[in-house]
Each structure stands twice: as structure tokens, then as C-alpha cells.
Design a protein that fits this description.
The chain has helices at residues 4-18, 41-45, 135-143, 156-163, 170-175, 185-195, 208-227, and strands at residues 25-28, 50-56, 59-64, 69-73, 79-87, 95-97, 107-112, 116-121, 128-132, 269-274, 277-282. The chain has 287 residues and is an alpha+beta fold. It binds a DNA duplex (16 and 16 nucleotides) through residues 1-3, 6, 32, 34, 58, 73-77, 105-106, 122-127, 166-168, 172, 175, 177, 184-187, 231, 233-234, 236, 253, 275-278.
DNA sequence: AAGAGGCCCTGATAGC
DNA sequence: TGCTATCAGGGCCTCT
């Protein structure tokens, strides 16, 4: 599911709903995510207040009142669900958590607050949690990632030097989180179509003009997607169950054999596997 | 050292 | 209907 825009949407709704709240209880139903959830996970987090919710790249970062950080990565199929506690009297004073849209399986982690809870669901379990002990360690961890497309340091000089003498194709470079972080398989195809560049083209062979386009459209596409609430292919939703709309704006992704949308372009969108990931591009206007 | 490929895992869908 | 094969939005690890 989640590339930078989708993670940003999740982050925004988490911020709105659980900032300043105290974690009352954590229930881990399955510890076997991408990385095993440690046995002291619950005790480290219970009774702590969520002081800040932020995001870098595809990571959501919770800062807690004991100065530790909880990182959450959604992998391919991770989703977060907000469930509000309803007090409904059914003869007795029973209170329960209403959950109309909650999946029945794969609800691996439940984090309870006073009058709500969030649930981490992830069928493929490629997502993970990670506790970071302090600010320095957080800095070191995030520093292993490249800049986000929005960052000033993601500029012509940087790309030019990074690509020098490299033979890797531009599509794989955009997926390389050490070069630029937050772009995934959908947006890589979209950005290259806007830029008019073939995904197979070697990074080292890009002209200055092309590099400038990549930089410009990486920012533009991601920002536009965030404004649309992200892309809801399959089942991406924000934590309250609301879908995004950017999938309606896709120019190439999932449009195999269809006509290119670019004005005066007569091309047909192709699908090819590049390093085992499906890649979409126009056979005419991307060179 | 850079780059390609395999692998972790479940579910939806297509094809027989 | 019920099998099998293929493909999914990510990223880490290994091999050359």
C-alpha cells in the first residue's frame, strides 16, 4: 500500500486522533512482523503519553513521554484503524469498541487509549515496529535514508554526483531509499512519465535537463497525491476508513495497453518488469 | 562496490 | 468446485 503520500495521510489522521493521549494498554496478537516485536515492547510503551507524531519517508514516528521513539513502517499491506469506544447500554453497563470496518484477520497490534484504540493490521507482515532509544539514535537511523524529494538537498548537484559513473537505471534509482526516500513502485512510474524519461535509462546517462525534471516532478506528484488523500488501490484508507483519490490521476500505473494521456502523444502504455517490479511507461513520449 | 535477484508472507484473481 | 500459478504499494540480505 503505502508510499510517502499514503504514510503522510495515516500520520495526519493519527496526529489528529491520538496526539497527547496516554497509552493505557498494548496487546500484541502476533509478534512475527518483518522484525520480531520484542517481549518488552508493551512495558516500554504502556503508560506513556504520545508527545509528537511525525513522519520521515515511509516511517511514522511517535515520540513518547519517556523520550523514546516508536517507529512504524507499514510494509506492503499495513493499515492502521482507529476505533472509538462507544458506551452503549445493553441491559448492563457494558462498554465496547465499535468496529464496523475492522478486518477480521491479521490485527496484530492493538494500542489502547482512554476512549479509543488503534489497531495495526497487516496480512503479509512486511511491516514492522521499532523502538528507538533516544534522539541521537533516531538521527542515526533516519540518516541512513536519503533525503525526501521535498528536501533542499535533493537537487541537481546531488543527483548529478550520485549518478556519476553509475549504470543502474533511473527507475531503480528512484526506488533506492538511500538516494531519495519515500518514493515507491507506483510513484516511480508516474514521476518518470511526467518527466518524459524511459524507466530503463541509465541514471548516469541523464542530461541536466532531465535531472531537473525528475526533481521537479518527484515533488509535484507526491504533493498532489497527498492533497488527494493518497492512492487507494486495493484497500488503502486513512485510519478512519476514508479512501484517497489519487489512483484516479494515475497516468501510467495500471494502464497497460491504454492510450497515453499526454496531449498530442499517440503512444500506448507498456508494462515491463524491471528488477522484478512492474513498471509502466509510454512507448512514445518517454525517451 | 555496485547492482541484480531472492526472499520474507497472505490474499485476490486468472486459468485450467 | 477446486486445484495451481501469478502478482501485489517494501526492504533486507546474499551473491557475483
Amino acid at each position: 500500500m503505502p508510499e510517502l503520500p499514503e504514510v503522510e495521510i495515516v500520520k495526519q489522521s493519527l496526529e489528529k486522533n491520538i496526539l497527547s493521549k496516554r497509552i493505557k494498554k498494548i496487546i500484541v496478537n502476533n509478534r512475527n512482523l518483518r522484525f520480531k516485536i520484542p517481549t518488552n515492547f508493551e512495558e516500554r510503551l504502556e503508560n506513556k503519553v504520545i508527545v509528537k507524531v511525525s513522519r520521515f519517508s515511509k516511517y511514522i514516528i511517535f515520540e513518547l513521554s519517556n523520550q523514546i521513539y516508536l517507529l512504524m513502517h507499514l510494509g506492503m499491506t499495513g493499515t492502521v484503524h482507529l476505533i472509538k469506544k462507544n458506551k452503549i447500554k445493553i441491559n448492563t453497563n457494558v462498554s465496547f469498541y465499535s468496529s464496523p470496518n475492522l478486518p477480521k484477520k491479521h490485527n496484530h497490534v492493538e494500542i489502547f487509549f482512554l476512549s479509543s484504540k488503534i489497531i495495526y493490521n497487516d496480512p503479509r507482515r512486511f511491516g514492522f515496529f521499532r523502538i528507538i532509544e533516544n534522539k541521537d539514535e533516531l538521527f542515526l537511523f533516519l540518516n541512513k535514508l536519503g533525503p525526501e524529494p521535498f528536501d533542499k538537498s535533493f537537487n541537481l548537484k546531488y543527483l548529478h554526483e550520485y549518478f556519476r559513473d553509475k549504470t543502474k537505471n533511473i527507475k531503480n534509482f528512484l526506488l533506492d531509499q538511500k538516494l531519495v526516500s519515500g518514493i515507491g513502485n507506483i510513484y516511480a512510474s508516474e514521476i518518470l512519465h511526467y518527466s518524459g524519461i524511459k524507466p530503463q535509462k541509465k541514471g548516469g546517462n541523464l542530461k541536466k535537463k532531465e535531472l531537473i525534471k525528475v526533481i521537479f516532478f518527484a515533488k509535484k506528484v507526491l504533493k498532489k497525491s497527498i492533497k488527494s488523500g493518497g492512492s487507494s488501490i486495493k484497500d488503502f484508507k486513512n485510519i478512519s476508513g476514508k479512501k484517497g483519490f489519487f489512483q484516479n490521476e494515475f497516468k501510467v500505473y495500471g494502464r497497460e495497453n491504454l492510450k497515453c494521456y499526454k496531449k498530442s502523444c499517440t503512444g500506448i502504455i507498456q508494462k515491463k518488469f524491471i528488477s522484478n517490479r512492474s513498471t509502466f511507461f509510454c512507448n512514445k513520449c518517454q525517451k
